[in-house]
Specification:
- The chain has 194 residues and is an alpha+beta fold.
- It has one domain (8-174).
- It contains six helices and six strands.
- The chain has helices at residues 21-24, 29-43, 46-51, 55-68, 79-87, 95-116; strands at residues 8-9, 120-123, 127-128, 133-140, 158-165, 168-174.
- Strands 1, 2, 3, 4, 5 and 6 form a six-stranded mixed beta sheet that branches.
- A hairpin with a 4-residue loop joins strand 3 and strand 4.
- Helix 4 (55-68) runs antiparallel to helix 5 (79-87).
- The radius of gyration is 17 Å and the shape is globular.
- It starts with 7 loop residues before the first strand and ends in a 20-residue tail after the last strand.
- Residues 1-16 and 190-194 have low confidence and may be disordered.
Amino acid sequence: MAGRSRRNVDGVSDLPSVPDPAHYAKGGPVDRVQQFLAAVFEDGSHDECWSMMDDNLRLCLAQAWLWNNREQPNIAGRLDELAERFVRGPWPGDEMWEAFGRIDLNDMVRVWGDGYARDLGAASHPRPIGVDLEIVLLVPTDGEALVFHEATLVADALQFVVRLVDGVWRLAGVAGVVPVPGWPPVIYGPGGGV
């Protein structure tokens, strides 16, 4: 990710002082999140972002948009059908897909824009939350080398969940939460809304 810092931010004191190189390696969890954010902010490509997500996150984002538009004549009564179709996307040139992509990408820019505008550093140690799930924590460093020797709450940190799928890390959730499909889906956890 051109112009972005890859400083280590150590938030837990009982972990080894040497970060796991696989955490930062090309194709690793941190690299995937940085590629995803570059697709959002530098390329402005929803289709590219979509290709980096796991099927569960795709389903939940599609369900959220469809739920919010469920009374539109071209959507009413077709929620499940359209959600499944969106998961298999992208569908360049499709009017409904393009509308969804514009709104979804705009939401990402709105939610993460302030954090992305700052110099971000990835926490130096993996944070596994399941067999194939890991949290990637990006912390605003504002150009400073940050080192924490104990668990520390950092304001404005960006938390992403990644899932290893067939040997490839894919974005699986935001705000440190794996979303739950449904009508409506739960994307940001209790109290976080759709």
